[in-house]
């Protein structure tokens, strides 16, 4: 058994290393001059430079992309919260014969291939004169955020003990104030996880943003992917810096999302 | 709970109406466009009914894209599940609770990355001359060049490895959490019967987790269809058409090469019909 355990631990340690090393290497490369990146033998010791990062942060296209991403994702998530959370609560707490169908409908939105949605939307937004605007992106992303938030919030609301809500009804609360003052605060931790998850999904979205924007409404992933096409002389350091910038916002939610996973699976136990 | 309240109606109906409009309008419109002969370059169009669909079946690049997509689904889903179950069981067996938490945090990181970022990270790593992932090969062979992304035989697997890196590690965390929720008695009983550790998992724990594992696989099958960003950044469907999946081909027909929006839409509609039918049937079977 001993050697088996040792091998198992080694494999795990290697997997843990593989999980973060490529990203750390990219972060390291973003601090290098091109000469230190383009080497046959990877260089660990080098004179660090902030030139790549300041170049990225100083570019108008990157700043516009960052702004567009933040506005489009922020507003879409807000719409997702306002429309998705109440709907999820109603499905979770007022079961009727449609509840199963509603849940399946919400899930089935995820089956739709993004190309199949993006092509007609491009034609539609062109006709409305809204092509390449943030408004078009926000409306399209709302479909994603509402459905994801609903899908994850239904179990979160179901996990709220019914007795707590019933006690509030006995105290004379109405249905709406039970939602506001009891269900929302009690389920808050899981709900924040659901919202964070939907934010990460739209922040990472690429194909729809690529097809629905041409210059004004480009989001950060599109800008980052275009940096790689600047001629023959690939600006490796700059590209690495843009990858790091693009990856930071989702990583900020690492703690929230792992807490969310923990709470989801603890509920299953009972 | 009070029987008579307006809450369910006011909370559900507006949201569902908005979801219905946002999903049905593009879906129906995709079908309408697929029956026309729209092109990006000209505003004129007319109805050609099913000729786009008929053309598809004689388009060898389309048939290739179908085949690549099928290969992609199989490779990524199977590899993801293998990695997830392998690492999940390993964590359960050899890692202390504190170490488990550390691994869980580390394993979630790749899946949080935007696919564009993940694709770039690995595109650098696979660079034949300067990449960190190809460095061991250069070191061992004394400087020979290994270029996985531009060889037709390895390109698909090189891109798939990034997908598995993102999802396999993340699913390992979920498999571990599932194992932790199992009641300990059956495992102890098997141990008393002198079952080996791998036997305990193969015959006791994993069969007990059959339903959630199938659901996980189902989620991965859906997510695997969204591989566009990875392929777009890493290979653009190349070398040749070795990694050209259906969405990549639809995109290049519609927007890069010829601007045949209707032709691309016909492809997307076929894809939509296939996925909706397959996944609805699978879902109903998983549920029952």
From TrEMBL, chain A:
Q: Name one Pfam family in it.
A: BPD_transp_1
Give yes or no: UniProt keyword Membrane.
Answer: yes
Give the location in the cell.
Answer: Cell membrane
List where the protein spans the membrane. 6-28, 69-92, 104-128, 134-154, 191-214, 234-261
InterPro entries according to UniProt: BP-dep_ABC_trans_perm, MetI-like, MetI-like_sf
Which Gene3D superfamilies has this protein been placed in? MetI-like
PROSITE patterns, per the entry: ABC_TM1
Coiled-coil features, chain-numbered ranges: none
ABC transmembrane type-1 domain span: 66-257
Q: Please, which domain of life does this record's source organism belong to?
A: Bacteria
Q: What is its main location?
A: membrane
Q: Which family does it belong to?
A: Belongs to the binding-protein-dependent transport system permease family.
Entry protein name = Carbohydrate ABC transporter permease
Organism expressing this protein natively: Mesorhizobium shangrilense
From TrEMBL, chain B:
InterPro entries named in the record:
MetI-like, MetI-like_sf, UgpAE/MalFG_permease
Localization per Swiss-Prot or TrEMBL: Cell membrane
Q: List the CDD domains.
A: TM_PBP2 (cd06261)
Q: How does it sit in the membrane?
A: Multi-pass membrane protein
Q: What is this protein called?
A: Sugar ABC transporter permease
Ranges for domain ABC transmembrane type-1: 66-282
Q: Which residues cross the membrane?
A: 74-95, 102-122, 155-179, 200-219, 261-283
Which PROSITE patterns does the UniProt record give?
ABC_TM1 (PS50928)
